Amino acid sequence: MTLNLVLQNIANGLSLGSLYALIAIGYTMVYGILRLINFAHGEIFMLAPYYLYFGMLIFSLPWWASALVAIGLTALTGMLSEKIAYKPLRDAPRISALISAIGVSFFLQNLSIVVFSGIPKSVHRPSYFTKIFQFGEIRIQSTLFASVGISVVFLSLLLFIIYKTKTGLAMRSISYDIETSRLMGIDVNKAISVTFIIGSALAAVGGILWSLRFPQIVPTMGTIPGLKAFIAAVVGGIGSVPGAMLGGLLLGMSEILFVTFFPPISGYRDAFVFLILILILFFKPDGILGVKTQEKV
Amino acid sequence: MKQRNEKTCTLISLIVLFLLVYLAQNKLDAYKIRILNLGAMYVTLGVSLNLIYGFTGQFSLGHAGFMGIGAYVTALLVLPAYYKEASFILEPLAWPFTVLHAPFIIALIFSGLFSALVAFIIGFPVLRLKGDYLGIATLGFAEIFRIIANNLPHITNGALGIKGIPEFTNLWWTVGVAVVAIYVIKGLISSSYGRALMAIRENEVAAEVIGINLTFHKVMSFTISAFFAGVAGGLFACLLTTIDPKAFRLVTTFNILAVVVLGGLGSITGTVIAAFLYNFFLEYLRPIEAGFNLGPIAFPPIPGLRMVTFSVLLLALILYKQRGIMGGAEFSWRWLFQFLNRIFNHKKTTEGGAS
């Protein structure tokens, strides 16, 4: 194992991890506010590359314009899914909302099969994302810089919104106590809509960057990255935004390094991810950065 | 209504049920029998999940895993020697499994026991977790099982799966197992154990304070639940005659969970109704995507349209009936007789009023 190879894989892990982090934020924000595991989030992630693909194919937009439109449309889809499927269930048992989320996930995935067809499509990648840089023996594709760079930009934007704006303050207060926030005159419905818009937009950014890395897109592509990002959110401490970022990076990195160091059992890479999850749950159930919840008697 | 009369009613309805099974098994075509089989299998799966989630309040997302364990145990025990040689292409089957062979019923019992053993072992550490964390951890174990099954070609034949399993499962087996599962779980929850389980569901701290051993009761509920999931998995293997790790993905757990929640958490009656409705709809929506002619207009086949319609129905049901079809209520003879009585008496009074 040469140093170069290790560095190469750290770079790979970083880029995969930043994608997980982008998706994980949607899970963690929604859970923080509604205590709902939004199983439809993986499908939201999958929609973005499709919007991008059809934006370029039908309206012949340039890549960047199509990407922006895709982010907007994905955010809109996320917001609508909340209005239709979760909002009426706000006072119902939490499990009903979870079943509703599973229903939305089935719906979006199969609607995509109907509308976009189940045949894999390959998304166009602009040439500036496929350049290869050579540092000594390490070869790094520009996608990697782009995904890390763009993730950092969007994540800082998110932190700014959450910690420096009034909407962010409202979101934080709702996740602390939804009833009291309502009594304090906070528009809960608006804040929840904003949460879904932000979460879905970040998943869209993740989806588009994903399609630069793996240009084949199919309607079922959202399930596995969605599940792993969800694990990342739990590992980082579900409900905590910095935790989701850390969890995503940690998960992406350990997944790549596991495959690098143990190539004969690389088929177990997903099992390894779940093992990390279970160990974290046993020893630190609230995640790395989660707040410890104490049950009052 | 006296206790003895209720028992007679139950006995009569059981006899009627078995007559119906006899008729269905002999008169219906294979396709309809398949749907009924799936429905009855989902009753077993749903009722067992209802025990751990609906009655004990422990959120488990590992049911597909336990079902998978049962399916593989049964498949390896009943697979004819010829297929054990022919279908393991990647690597030959490992030693003990090449000679092990058992009749179907023994295989089913072993499936349940093995599943229960796994649940017992992971239950002790896992069931200390609460709420969603427990769900996530059990989900993790189920996925780990699936990945292991994918990576052990000398036992599970890897991603290719096991083919040529004899088709032992018929309505007698699926309905029979469902009846046994309902009988055992109904008996359990009406016993003092059941009251302890429901106390844990309502408030864990309070239950512990009045002297209920949390670990013992939770692990017991989890183990029994896994036993029936394993048996249902065995039925599944001998129903489809072919299994592979893909059949035990998270989606399968979601289907079982949807059956339990749509039926109404903590209602066995609801689970039974929802299990059959769920499978009927899944199958009878098939013509939608097959393409059809409506007068002169021909609709082309559209793959995926069935599941789109199905998910819309699922969403509509959960949005309209937020607590499920039965909402936690249970069918009982007393309820039925009171209901009949009311209709009967109502009729009498209206007749009296008219004259």
Provide a short characterization of the protein structure.
Chain A is mostly helical and 297 residues long. Chain A has helices at 3-34, 41-58, 63-86, 94-116, 142-164, 166-176, 178-183, 188-213, 223-236, 241-261, 269-283; strands spanning 121-122, 132-135, 138-141, 216-217. Chain A has one domain: ABC transporter involved in vitamin B12 uptake, BtuC, CATH 1.10.3470.
Structure description:
The complex is a heterodimer of chains A (297) and B (355). Chain A is mostly helical and 297 residues long. Chain A has a single domain, classed as ABC transporter involved in vitamin B12 uptake, BtuC. Chain A contains eleven helices and four strands, in the order H-H-H-H-E-E-E-H-H-H-H-E-H-H-H. Chain A has helices spanning 3-34, 41-58, 63-86, 94-116, 142-164, 166-176, 178-183, 188-213, 223-236, 241-261, 269-283; strands at 121-122, 132-135, 138-141, 216-217. In chain A, the strands form two sheets. A two-stranded antiparallel ribbon of chain A has the order 1-4. A two-stranded antiparallel sheet of chain A has the order 2-3. In chain A, helix 1 (3-34) runs parallel beside helix 5, helix 1 runs antiparallel to helix 10 (241-261) and helix 5 packs antiparallel against helix 8 (188-213). The longest helix of chain A is centred in the first third of the chain and has 32 residues, at 3-34. Chain A is globular and about 60 Å long. Chain B has 355 residues and is mostly helical. Chain B has one domain (33-290, 306-354). Chain B is 74% helix and 2% strand. Chain B has helices at residues 3-27, 30-55, 63-78, 81-86, 95-99, 104-126, 131-151, 153-156, 171-189, 192-202, 204-209, 214-240, 250-263, 268-284, 286-290, 305-320, 333-354; strands at residues 292-294, 297-299. Chain B has a two-stranded antiparallel sheet. In chain B, helix 10 crosses helix 12 (214-240). The model of chain B has no long low-confidence stretch (mean pLDDT 88). The A-B interface holds A 35, 37, 39, 84-85, 88-89, 92-93, 95-96, 98-100, 102-104, 106-107, 109-114, 117-118, 223, 227, 231, 234, 238, 265, 267-268, 270-271, 274-275, 277-278, 281-282, 285, 295, 297 and B 125, 129, 132-133, 135-137, 140-141, 143-144, 147-148, 150-151, 205, 250, 254, 257-258, 261-262, 265, 302-308, 310-312, 314-315, 318-319, 322-324.
